[in-house]
Amino acid sequence: MPYKVTLIPGDGIGPEITDAARRVIEATGVAIDWEIVEAGEAVIGDYGTPLPDYVLESVRNNKVALKGPLTTPIGTGFRSVNVALRKELNLYANVRPAVTLPGVDSRYDNVDLIIVRENTEDLYAGVEHMVGEDAAESIKIITRKASERIVRFAFELAKKQGRRKVTAVHKANILKFSDGLFLKTAKEVAADYPEIEFEDMIVDAMSMKLVQMPEKYDVLVMPNLYGDILSDLCAGLVGGLGVAPGANIGDGIAVFEPVHGSAPKHAGKNRVNPLATILSGVMMLEYLGEQEAADRIRRAVNAVLVNKDQVTYDLGGSASTSGMADAIIANIQSN
Ligand code: NAD
Question: How far is the CA of 191 from the centre of ligand 1 (A)?
Fold first, then answer.
């Protein structure tokens, strides 16, 4: 029986990179019946929303999706479409690995860390209002339940992957109630995992240490906003947004997508890097239990990355989006 997977091509560069990822995944021979559902700017005219109900229904039914980026229209009533999707499906854990890749220019050669970002609350709960004409308030919501769930997820991930340390990132010295609750809860959960080292770090110090010595860190768990910011920083440690994959995971449901957005200025030019989406597809195969297929893609990617004529402009190469995918597919087929 083939796996049934929802494929959301998305906006901007989305269709090009999801097509590349789909072809690479199919080259492994894993049978997938893709249910393609359109979301984003193209459907607003017909449905009045970038996220019609059929998109959510498809993901709820299939339980697994591969997603291209969605543009958040500016100056309309829509808050981020991506945040809405994660909230609607209760995809509470955002998992973003940052791993040094062969052949990719970076100042560091030993980075292997995972950001686990809480995906449902914090300042992204969208509770915001004006106070009169000249002031505005955004409410930061942190609950014990969501904090416990995300920290436990991080420890379970560390356990499953044989990782040694979990670092909880916060600003509890200033935000004594909200981040204070997150930190207190993290310490309580950590007590259940004595075999895994635990430490906590204030987000500003964490930013400096990640730039100075990223190889010291392993699994980092944090509230939504810090996770959003630090995951782009960590993408920068290993070659940029073009190589940074991600997963949004809930209970028995998961949506895989690159960290980057729809990069509208590059859309339709067949020039951006498809690797972040391909590696998101690799995370999806691992989630489905298709480890061998995932390993085959990783090996092919590593072989292709050292050839500048087979990689895209952002990695110093000259290949197109589809050309880089073709090179990875050729490598999979010849090994
Ligand atoms: P972006 O990530 O789309 O692009 C920023 C820059 O990063 C690009 O101009 C490009 O230079 C580079 N870049 C991004 N992806 C690349 C790739 N695959 N290969 C090579 N270079 C790449 O960020 P943005 O311009 O701030 O956002 C554009 C739109 O995307 C916005 O509407 C935003 O809301 C949305 N967005 C969506 C998601 C998502 O769907 N999960 C995530 C972030 C941003």
Answer: 39
